[in-house]
Write a structure and sequence with these properties.
CATH class of the largest domain: Alpha Beta
Number of domains: 2
Radius of gyration: 18 Å
Number of strands: 11
Oligomer: single chain
Structural class: alpha/beta
Order of helices and strands: EHEHEHEHEHEEEEHHHEE
Number of helices: 8
Largest sheet: 5 strands, parallel
Distance between the termini: 46 Å
CATH architecture of the largest domain: 3-Layer(aba) Sandwich
Strand order of the largest sheet: 2-1-3-4-5
Shape: globular
């Protein structure tokens, strides 16, 4: 099985992970399940997996601390499993670099769809792009984005970004000078419709703004356009 289909499940619920593993394997993923944060972080940092699915509520090393360890050494996609309605864990996970979240209890089908959406952006797009166009970046002011390489630079300096952060920045760069709604950003960058009261886009964009820094006049190059969404400034 190709390495790009390897999924790491990190959850202390053995019965649930067995169910998810069985379903995902039917969907042609290669799945490894570990049941504590220490082993989960070590496995994630091995470089063998395309994505990690990480439960927030675990004994000893919880999901948030596990995510910190993963992000200290890897930008691999991480999908968090969070308690339904628990916005605190959800936002903390996103701020620490989780790519997205799925509220528990979730169905195996929902989890599979979310994994597929993340991997489609990180792996599917560049596989289809070859030749001269592969070397052509999107350039907006000091920002340069190479979609096929999933690489971005600001003023010549490489930006360290998660998969979802890159997706959002690419969408904004392709629409530079025009506002993009949160709904469109969610569909195009996260691969799912925007849920009511969902703050994921806001949290990710806050992280991107921090990494880009400010323009010489003190403004962020990513502006909030009231009632319309977000806009990457051209100048």
């Amino acid at each position: 099985m190709a390495a790009m289909t390897k999924v790491l499940l990190i959850d202390d619920d053995i019965e649930l992970t067995a169910l998810l593993k069985e379903y995902l394997e039917q969907e042609e993923y290669e799945v490894t399940a570990v049941h504590n944060g220490e082993d989960g972080a070590a496995a994630a940092l091995s470089g063998e997996y395309a994505i990690a699915v990480l439960d927030v509520m675990m004994p000893r090393l919880n999901g948030v601390e596990t995510l910190k360890r993963i992000r200290a050494g890897s930008a691999m996609p991480v999908l968090m499993l969070t308690a339904r309605g628990d916005d605190t864990d959800r936002i903390v996970g996103l701020e620490l670099g989780a790519d997205d979240y799925v509220p528990k209890p979730c169905t195996p089908r929902e989890l599979s769809a979310r994994i597929r959406a993340i991997l489609r952006r990180t792996q599917g797009a560049e596989a289809a792009r070859e030749g001269a166009s592969a070397a052509t970046p999107l350039v907006v002011g000091d920002l340069s984005v190479w979609p096929q390489q999933r690489r971005a630079e600001w003023a010549g300096k490489t930006l360290e970004m998660t998969s979802t952060e890159f997706n959002l920045l690419e969408v904004l760069a392709r629409n530079a000078g025009k506002p993009v709604s949160k709904g469109d950003l969610s569909e195009q960058a996260l691969g799912r419709p925007l849920a009511r009261f969902d703050r994921s886009i806001d949290v990710h964009l806050s992280a991107i703004r921090h990494k880009l820094g400010n323009l010489p006049d003190g403004r962020s190059c990513i502006q909030t356009v009231r009632r319309l969404g977000y806009q990457l400034l051209k100048e």
